[in-house]
Amino acid sequence: MALEPSSQLPAGLLEALQASSSRSRPTPYLLSSFVNGISDVTETTDGETANKYDLLCPRPGCGSIILKKGVAVLEERESFQIEPSDIPPHPLLPPLPDTSESIRWWLITPSPMSFENIGFSRPVESLPLSPAGKKFKLLACAECDLGPLGWSEEGGTEFWLACSRVGYQSGQ
Asked: Which domain of life is it from (predicted)?
């Protein structure tokens, strides 16, 4: 006996899908829009400087929440060229400085489960290996695929987002 597929949608399903796609999305504010830069988007507690606001996808109209406030720790470390050489850089993402310069990153540990909504690439063959000899994975918005917003080492427990490549949910 073969089952016939139902041509009826469950009650309320279509309305729920339409409501979810038309909900208002938070407006991402770029780091460059804050008068005092990084100090406007951080708060320090017990010697650790964390993200004061939810981190969002920077694409206008997306605004997907990538990370909740207070989860990431601000770190300054060397820049990485995370743009694969075989893909042109995205015009919405500011270029990262040369690898000889240091920049500010959001460090997220110990697992990818700390994120609300992030996507990971496969290990990127066109990037050099990390100082630990591991391949890099790139981080992107899981909703609209804008990236790279950051990186991690393959199999690593540290996840890095460039402070200049994410949006901030602020009451500006």
From this structure: Eukaryota
